[in-house]
Amino acid sequence: MRSLLAGLPLIWNMKVKVPFKLGVVGHFGLAVRDPKKSARWFERALGLQKQFDFDEGIAIGNDNVTIALFKGNPSPRTIDHMSFHLPNMATLRKALAHLKKHKVDVEDPGHEIGPEAEGSKNMGIWFHDPDGYRWELSVQGRGD
């Protein structure tokens, strides 16, 4: 790979003028073993609602995002995790209690709420859905 890049300009340092700005996430798709079962999990764990059925899948979401769950082989390693922001720490603590109540696979038992990275002011909770995808709920700048 190194030889393919040798001599090429460092394009990531170049400023490119783009005539648009991305908005909120419209939707993204995930391969899951059983779309109906996964949709029920997202409804129970994250409060997302069924939006519509499509060939081999179900779309679930809320005003901020839609997740298209389609029948396939889950591939959690293709995306490290997906994060959703919450408004403050009180809400993050309520989210943790809710996830535990519904027996969601939450990381770091006993220390579930922590900084997103060493030195970060952002706090989060990381957990997994039944297909193995990793999710995060976070508060930016601690949002007390």
Provide the fold topology:
Elements: H1 2-5, E1 27-32, H2 35-46, E2 49-54, E3 57-61, E4 66-71, E5 82-85, H3 89-101, E6 105-106, E7 114-115, E8 123-128, E9 134-139
Parallel strand pairs: 1-4, 5-9
Antiparallel strand pairs: 2-3, 3-4, 6-8, 7-8, 8-9
Structure description:
The chain has 144 residues and is an alpha+beta fold. 20% of the residues lie in helices and 30% in strands. It contains three helices and nine strands. Strands 5, 6, 7, 8 and 9 form a five-stranded mixed β-sheet that branches. The model has no long low-confidence stretch (mean pLDDT 90).
Can you give me a brief rundown of this structure?
The protein is α+β, with helices and mostly antiparallel strands.
- Report the structural category: alpha+beta
- Extract low-pLDDT stretches: none
- Judging by the overall fold, what is the CATH architecture of the largest domain? Roll
The DSSP helix count reads: 3
The termini sit apart by 46 Å
Number of domains: 2
Measured by DSSP, the beta-strand proportion falls in 25-35%
CATH names the topology of the largest domain as 2,3-Dihydroxybiphenyl 1,2-Dioxygenase, domain 1
- The overall strand count is 9
Shape: globular
The major pleated sheet works out as: 5 strands, mixed
Q: What is the CA-atom radius of gyration, in angstroms? A: 18 Å
Order of helices and strands: HEHEEEEHEEEE
Under CATH, the homologous superfamily of the largest domain reads 2,3-Dihydroxybiphenyl 1,2-Dioxygenase, domain 1
**Overall average residue pLDDT:** 90
Helix content: 10-25%
**CATH level 1 class label of the largest domain:** Alpha Beta
